[in-house]
Design a protein that fits this description.
The complex is a heterodimer of chains A (227) and B (282).
Chain A lengths: L4 H34 L2 H32 L3 H34 L9 H23 L2 H31 L4 H33 L9 H6 L1
Chain B lengths: L19 E2 L2 E2 L8 E12 L2 E12 L3 E5 L6 H7 L10 E9 L2 E2 L7 H7 E4 L10 H11 L5 H14 L3 H4 L12 H13 L5 E5 L7 H14 L4 E5 L3 H7 L2 E6 L2 E7 H6 L4 H7 L5
Parallel strand pairs in B: 5-10, 5-11, 8-9, 9-10
Antiparallel strand pairs in B: 1-2, 3-4, 3-6, 6-7, 11-12
Helix pairs in contact in B: 3-4, 3-6, 4-6, 6-7
The chains are: A mainly alpha (227), B alpha/beta (282).
């Protein structure tokens, strides 16, 4: 006999709201890449404006989670689901902020007279957008393998960042007059690299929701050095 | 996640001197880390098997909760731990239950010595129809303590351990039946403490109590952990999560899962246990 009807309904609602927030982030990221490639300032401004919608969605999900803890007192799988969601939305909200930060830089760079090579950066954007998408999908479907794949993909993003940085160093060597744009571009690349880290964090919480074990797949630099 | 108060095993109390009573040895040695060791226990009521191959080690000076739906065998197992099932006609126990180093189902077991070491508190408070003082002195008197000063001391110590001394010190000669339900239940715990048991078994001790009295009993359990091992049967999941160090889940006479409470309530290993504690079957 199936019980806990209200809890089940609220878990479905939570999943829907998370999916929704995931869509909003994807749109922000895709939009920022398009704005960058097309030097589309209006698009960049729109993404900056829409960041508050992502923030509001975070608050709504947070309230739902707190309400579920209070009213339903979830345990075991249910508790892991709700607590993982609370942790995930923090990273998701940060990704939204970073999409807006990227758009700030796009406005700063402005229209350039030279064609910049976005190759590695646009590849970073593609990979990180997929990471965010897949991590939320893994949560909704309780797909452990998919969550692990997301975490593993972060290495690819880190490599792309190194290549992008190399490209930009070459660009400055080639034409010192472009150094300001190159530095802005480097920051954009760094934001995508950080978005990869946030997506990995989301993946880690998905793994926790499924298995009950939380492991750091993305150790910080200092921890790396300690080893 | 949960912030459960975990507790390391406490150094044992002074080892008791073996006592001779009649020709029966009453040695219960609680110096080890395990208070109760249940090994391959099967229990039958006539032809009905109520417990199936139960094995578990209950650690000393910790609270162990037994949970599961009605009829799963948890109360039956609790009663085997001080041989209350002896009173049930047609009840047969196979396997071993080792308490204080002794197999309590061995033929030469002294039941009153066993029950002195393994006290019990029931679902409904059951004070004797006598004064608070006499309730607490009842068991010590049966063990031969007569001196007023010794009994006074026991009453004060037991009531203080049960955090009731200040409430009851001026009402010691009043009838225990005049106390509230929650007070009666705590008095029953104080009465169990009077003979300084090593283990107290509690069978749904708060199911008849309001939340405030329930809270007091839970606080009491936590404060007694230094001195006694508590095994509690409860239908209240939150109660198990709040106070127990270890939790065992029973279903249809089997122990399906046993582990640290935090693990059982955050990431149970068995699907049936998860379904039960998340309220998805009944």
């Amino acid at each position: 006999m199936m019980m806990r009807t209200r809890l089940n309904e609220e878990l479905i609602k939570l999943h829907n709201m998370l999916e929704n927030m995931g869509d909003m982030i994807e749109q922000a990221l895709e939009g920022s890449v398009a704005a960058l490639a097309n030097e589309d300032m209006d698009k960049a401004r729109e993404i900056i404006r829409n960041d508050r919608l992502i923030n509001r969605q975070e608050k709504d999900i947070e309230s739902l989670c707190f309400k579920m803890i209070l009213m339903e007192q979830p345990v075991a799988y249910d508790l892991r689901n709700v607590s993982a969601a609370i942790k995930m939305i923090t990273d998701m909200e940060r990704i939204g902020d970073q999409a807006a930060d990227i758009c700030d830089l796009i406005l700063h760079i402005g229209k350039t007279s030279v064609a910049l090579d976005y190759g590695h950066i646009s590849r970073m954007a593609e990979v990180t957008i997929q990471m965010v998408k897949k991590s939320i999908e893994a949560f909704i479907k309780s797909d452990l393998d998919l969550a692990k794949k997301v975490c593993a993909t972060d290495d690819e993003v880190d490599e792309l960042f190194k290549s992008a940085r190399h490209d930009l160093v070459e660009l400055i060597r080639h034409d010192v007059n472009l150094s300001e744009q190159a530095i802005d571009m480097l920051m954009i690349a760094k934001y995508f690299e950080r978005i990869g880290d946030h997506a990995t964090n989301i993946g880690e919480w998905v793994i926790y929701a499924i298995t009950g074990e939380h492991k750091d797949y993305n150790p910080s630099v200092s921890e790396d050095e300690e080893r | 996640m949960f912030n459960f108060k975990k507790k390391e095993a406490q150094p044992s109390r002074e080892k008791k001197q073996p006592k001779e009573k009649g020709n029966k040895l009453e040695i219960f040695d609680f110096s080890g880390d395990t208070a109760i060791s249940v090994r391959d226990v099967d229990l039958y009521y006539g032809n009905f098997q109520a417990l199936k191959k139960i094995s578990l080690e209950i650690p000393k000076h910790q609270i162990t909760a037994m949970i599961g739906p009605s009829g799963c065998g948890k109360s039956t197992l609790l009663k085997t731990l001080n041989r209350m099932n002896d009173l049930v006609e047609g009840c047969r126990v196979e396997g071993k239950i080792i308490i204080g180093g002794r197999d309590i189902y061995a033929k030469d077991t002294d039941l009153s010595a066993l029950r002195k070491n393994v006290g019990m508190v029931f679902q409904k408070p059951n004070p004797f129809p006598m004064s608070v003082y006499d309730n607490i002195c009842y068991a010590p008197r049966t063990f031969g303590i007569r001196a007023k000063s010794a009994l006074d001391e026991i009453v004060e110590r037991s009531l203080k351990q049960a955090a009731m001394w200040d409430e009851l010190k001026d009402r010691l000669n009043k009838s225990a039946l005049g106390l509230s339900g929650g007070q009666q239940q705590r008095l029953c715990i104080a009465r169990a403490l009077a003979v300084q048991p090593e283990i107290i078994l509690m069978d749904e001790p708060t199911s008849a109590l309001d939340p405030i009295s329930t809270g007091k009993i839970e606080e009491l359990c936590l404060s007694l952990r230094d001195k006694v091992t508590i095994v509690i049967v409860t239908h209240n999941m939150q109660q198990a999560a709040r106070i127990a160090d270890k939790t065992a889940f029973f279903l249809l006479g089997e122990m399906v899962e046993y582990g640290d409470t935090e693990q059982v309530f955050s990431a149970p290993k068995d699907k049936r246990c998860e379904d039960y504690i998340t309220g998805r079957f009944g």
